[in-house]
Amino acid sequence: MGTASVTPHDTGSGPEGDREGLGGRWGRIARSPLGWMLTGMVGVGLVSGLTATGPGPVPVLGAVAAVAVYWLVMRHAAQRSTPEIARLGAGREVLLGGGIGLGFILVSVLLITAFGGYSFSWAGDGFMSVVWTAVAVQVGAAVTEELLFRGLALQALEKLWGSWAAIVITSLFFGVAHLGAPAANAWSGVAIALEAGVLLGAAFLWRRNIWFVVGLHFAWNLTQQLLGIPVSGHAPEGLFTVDVHGSALLTGGGFGLEASIMPVLIGVAIAVVMLVRAHRDGGIKARRSANR
Fold first, then answer.
1. pLDDT digit string, tens, across residues 247-276
2. 3-state secondary structure of 231
3. Closest CA to 188 of 105, 252, 250
4. Rounded CA gap, 35 and 256, in Å?
């Protein structure tokens, strides 16, 4: 009878094995769609919280930092490329989205004014200081919110459950996120979910480009602020002051334009067109294909 040679094997039960198992487990969690979504939202949200209300160019610098955090999370946690924030063609996408956002708000305001809901007067404050402050704040808001809701949340949820589920869930969360704003109520939350959550989600599914959605969001908010209309309940300094008359359903009341029925109807109509084009171009993904 020969003597059996026994070679010890590493079972991973020691301290080193425990650390590897823990690292592997946490690595798998971080690489999952919900894992990289939450990691990115914490990072971008932290940057936004520290810079959104800062003086001068601080919100713009915060937007740059938020893009860097997003890139790092997508490349190292999600382990995917980031064509949605590519620099090539970014300017064109911003301008296209901005044109749609500008037109959307101006048409809504003109209709409300035509029905007697708004009247405007020149505020008389310093033109350049008001414009510069508004631009800086709204760049920060548009970039960070779109990275959070369309870049991270929508793409992660789409990978799990497909495009339709992703746009519904992110739209609901977008509405809920605005319930803490001044003068917010249940209707303003529904209005934001429909006109902003659905429209901005549809814009991303159509173009698959964050810069397009950022341009739309930025022009939307900036136009409201410069006209003196509260932006999601907040009433920062603008070039005009607005007097509001009549039904809150028409004017949006203290919450501002976004709680008016006009932009809800127009925004949903634009979103439907974008979703039809996204479907035609193959941008709507089913759950099965989204997971591939």
1. 999 999 999 999 999 999 999 999 999 999
2. strand
3. 252
4. 36
